[in-house]
Write a structure and sequence with these properties.
With about 400 residues, the chain is of the alpha+beta class. It contains ten helices and nine strands.
């Protein structure tokens, strides 16, 4: 009663208050006990396929007798027999996290569900199996034997996690079954804590792959950037020759080049920005593992820094080169446009000076014509007056017409 009364005394909620408050609870971590097997799939989902991917997921769950809501959901936990299936929709990918007990019945259900998920038509980006084992009876000297069971002769990496509460090893390779494998040894960890650590390990692999999506873009773009850079160098070299006859053509070439640079920048800007953001997430998730070294093994941080950082640096360098090229093209365009404007102003001044000279000549001509007109009119008027003088003389007055006319 008291809580109800207090609620009525509160101001109206902001339109987004409840959604924002529930955001921190949007994707709760599932508890995991040992022994368990986790099947983890990530499908790349661009905006054009997002609805279709969700409809395919609905079909899978419908065939299993657990239909999903028609309206797309961002997070859904479904219990199918002994399995717990977590479906998550993100802006660029759709992921399935299936948790199964490592007993014959649970593994049989897991294989059945895996066959259903194999019918999805989305683009598979990550497929991982996590083998959660009780690690209390497995000493570090026995890790080679455990690794040989799951990874064969492959080189593996690993570390103690959560300040020594668990251990994890993996080779980061895709095996013949299409999955990469992770062995997670629980030494002293509660199910919820185990679930959080396993989720961080899986997110490291997911965000690592998402960050690397920009690498093919950078590789494809580098020859284009080099060609445009060479063209810019050629144009700038022509500008320094001060051949005004070519300035209009050079300006048109620069304008076309700037358009191509801006198109390339617009096409890859999102991918490069997303790559940097995903790399930051990888770094954060590795930090959350709270690693300790297992003697003789690379840690997850060392492996990632050695293999992922060069690729991310390539993407960053390509993006920086493209931005620098765009700036240089803009500066060259401004320079040439300024030169063209100066030449145009000089031509305008010369044109105005020529017009002024012509106007002055016209004025002088006009004055000459006006003077001649005055002489002609005066001559005509005086001729008329001579007739008047002659008429006066004929009338009998004593006047000399020639002298009066003169």
């Amino acid at each position: 009663m008291l809580a109800s009364t207090a609620a009525t005394m509160l101001p109206p909620n902001h339109a987004s208050r409840l959604d924002l408050a529930n955001e921190v609870h949007a994707r709760p971590t599932e508890g995991i006990s040992s022994p368990s097997t986790i099947l983890y799939l990530v499908l790349a989902s661009d905006p054009a396929r997002r609805r279709a991917d969700y409809e395919e997921a609905r079909d899978v769950f419908k065939r299993l007798g657990h239909p999903l809501p028609e309206a797309p959901v961002t997070h859904r936990v479904t219990k199918i027999g002994a399995l717990r299936v977590v479906l998550e929709r993100h802006s660029e990918f759709l992921r399935f996290n299936v948790i199964a007990p490592s007993d014959p019945a649970g593994l049989a259900e897991l294989e059945r569900l895996a066959a259903e998920l194999g019918r999805l038509t989305g683009q598979l980006l990550v497929a991982t199996k996590v083998h959660v084992l009780d690690g209390r009876d497995i000493a570090e000297k026995d890790l080679d034997r455990v690794a040989e069971t799951y990874f064969g002769d492959n080189t593996f990496v690993g570390a103690q996690l959560a300040d020594g509460a668990a251990r994890a090893i993996t080779d980061f390779k895709i095996d013949g079954d299409g999955f990469s494998h992770v062995v997670f040894l629980v030494d002293n960890m509660r199910p919820r804590q185990c679930g959080r650590m396993v989720q961080r390990l899986l997110e490291i692999d997911t965000y690592r792959m998402m960050a690397l999506l920009a690498l093919p873009v950078a590789r494809d773009l580098r020859p284009t950037i080099e060609a445009m850079d060479n063209e810019l160098t050629e144009i700038v070299s022509a500008i320094t020759k001060k051949d005004t006859r070519q300035e209009a053509d050079l300006l048109e070439r620069l304008t076309n080049l700037e358009a191509r640079v801006q198109h390339a920048h617009s096409a890859c800007h999102y991918r490069f920005s997303a790559s940097a953001a995903y790399h930051d997430l990888v770094t954060q998730r590795i930090s959350d593992l709270r690693e300790r070294r297992i003697e003789g093994l690379q840690t997850f941080f060392e492996f990632t820094a050695r293999r992922l950082s060069p690729a991310i640096n390539t993407c960053r360098t390509t993006s920086s080169n493209l931005k620098d090229l765009s700036l240089r093209v803009a500066q060259a365009t401004d320079l040439l446009a300024t030169r063209v404007e100066i030449v145009r102003e000089r031509q305008n001044r010369e044109l105005l000076a020529s017009m002024a000279r012509r106007a002055k000549l016209q004025l002088r001509l006009q004055r000459t014509v006006e003077g001649l007109s005055i002489v002609a009119v005066s001559y005509y008027v005086i001729g008329l007056l001579s007739y008047v003088f002659k008429g006066i003389k004929a009338a009998g007055l004593n006047i000399n017409p020639d002298l009066a006319t003169g």
